Amino acid sequence: MTQRTALITGGTGGIGTAIVRKLATQGHRVATNFRDAARAEAWRRQMADEGIAVCMVRGDVSDPADCEAMVRAVEEQCGPVGILVNNAGITRDTTFHKMSYQQWTDVVNTNLNACFNVTRPVIEGMRARKWGRIVQISSINGQKGQYGQANYAAAKAGMHGFTISLAQENARFGITVNTVSPGYVGTDMVMAVPEEVREKIVAQIPIGRLGKPEEIAHAVAFFLGEEAAWITGANLAINGGHYMGW
Predict the structure, then answer these.
(1) Which domains does the chain have, with CATH numbers?
(2) What does the alpha-carbon distance between residue 41 and residue 216 come to, in Å, rounded to a whole number?
């Protein structure tokens, strides 16, 4: 496999860490952003202990200027970004009639606007080099909706709209753009949910368990190789059968 520079936003989170590990084991140079320096340094040391070197660059994905600087710093240190995984995301859950404008914009800025902010600085280079792989990490709740998540569901649904438009615009430049929509995965965020709530969620999943971060990383890696060069504009739902749309 050709070694490329892969930028994974939100790489220090549960799913992000699994993607970093997977792409590193495939031989790619991996990079991610951070905001909390102390937390990022602890995570970087953990990766180093596993033999994984990660390029760490400060950057707020909700800030366009920050993202421009972040991408330039990654490319100076690691080379042109050939793989981009838009993974960073947050939640600010509440029912819509109680939702503040700040709760709405925080989620839309971090989950959806970040796709523009991070992709815009890399897309011209990919077009010039006639190769690129872009993957959005959306969510089952962007497909089916979720009580108390109007902001999150709207942003995650918008990510796939972004995918299919970008895929059409860039297919002739050797760039594929796809979406992975995970269901409920056993990350720290999900495991922090009260056990009785988790049990109700698992009861709705035909496979009968939460997903593993490594399973999401495998789905991402599937889109990156030359064998997947004819797949673009696709949404791969990986949710244990929890939602079976088509």
Answers:
(1) 5-237 (3.40.50.720)
(2) 24
CA dihedral over 198, 189, 81, 113, signed as positive or negative: positive
- Catalytic, out of 101, 147, 152, 243: 152
Strand order in the sheet with 54-58: 54-58, 29-34, 5-8, 81-86, 132-137, 175-182, 235-238
3-state SS string for the chain: CCCCEEEECCCCCHHHHHHHHHHHHCCCEEEEEECCHHHHHHHHHHHHHCCCCEEEEECCCCCHHHHHHHHHHHHHHHCCEEEEEECCCCCCCCCHHHCCHHHHHHHHHHHHHHHHHHHHHHHHHHHHHCCEEEEEECCHHHHHCCCCCHHHHHHHHHHHHHHHHHHHHHHHHCEEEEEEEECCECCHHHHCCCHHHHHHHHHCCCCCCCECHHHHHHHHHHCCCHHHCCCCCCEEEECCCCCCCC
pLDDT category at 1 given cuts 50, 70, 90 is low
Instruction: Indicate the pTM of the whole model.
Output: 0.96
Instruction: Give residue-wise pLDDT tens across range 16-46.
Output: 999 999 999 999 999 999 999 999 999 999 9
Give the Cα-Cα-Cα angle 208, 212, 217 (nearest 5 degrees).
135
CB atoms within 10 A of CB 174: 14
Query: Is 184 noted as a catalytic residue in this protein?
Result: no
